[in-house]
Amino acid sequence: MTKNEAIAKLAELAAVWYGNSKQHAVFAAYNKFNGYNKLAEKFAEEASEEFAEANEAINRLIELGCQPTDLATAIKTVEFDLSADPKEQLELDLKYGTDDSAIQELSLLSQAFADDYITQELIQKWIKGEKEHIDWNRQHRQLIEKVGYDNYLLEML
């Protein structure tokens, strides 16, 4: 991946993170309204983190020399599916790259910035965050399988 391709990919990721932050915000609000406070808190935290990652990406792109007119892709919002069902929310959360492929993609991006320690460090932080989120999501899907969906929802109150 060339440096220009890596910069373009970073802009695409910002758009994904903006969209994902909106998805998580909707899931948080809906779960809070329905009394699933533990789930709502986690989705709200994820919404905030995704929004912050998008902003970090835009700031880094500007530091790398991008002009505001170069950031059209970065400020777009990739649309994410929504659901009222918490189990489907967990599944949708992994639908658009929030799985091991996201970590692989970020690792490749990190390699493209091998000569840029600041960007690499930022990407490594994002990789750690993705890994933690993937683990959390898997744990919750496994919990549903072990205790049943109704018991899981009771636990999320």
Automatic annotation (TrEMBL):
Q: Which GO terms describe its molecular function?
A: ferric iron binding
- Signal peptide region: none
Domain of life (superkingdom): Bacteria
Cross-referenced PROSITE patterns: FERRITIN_LIKE
A Gene Ontology biological process in which this protein takes part is: iron ion transport
What are the residue boundaries of the Ferritin-like diiron domain, all occurrences included? Answer: 1-148
Source species taxonomy: Bacteria, Pseudomonadati, Bacteroidota, Bacteroidia, Bacteroidales
Q: Which InterPro entries match?
A: Bacterioferritin, Ferritin-like, Ferritin-like_diiron, Ferritin-like_SF, Ferritin_DPS_dom
- Mind telling me which Pfam families this protein's record contains? Ferritin
Does Iron count among this protein's keywords? yes
Which family does the UniProt entry place this protein in? Belongs to the bacterioferritin family.
Keywords from UniProt, A to Z, are:
Iron, Iron storage
This chain's protein is named: Bacterioferritin
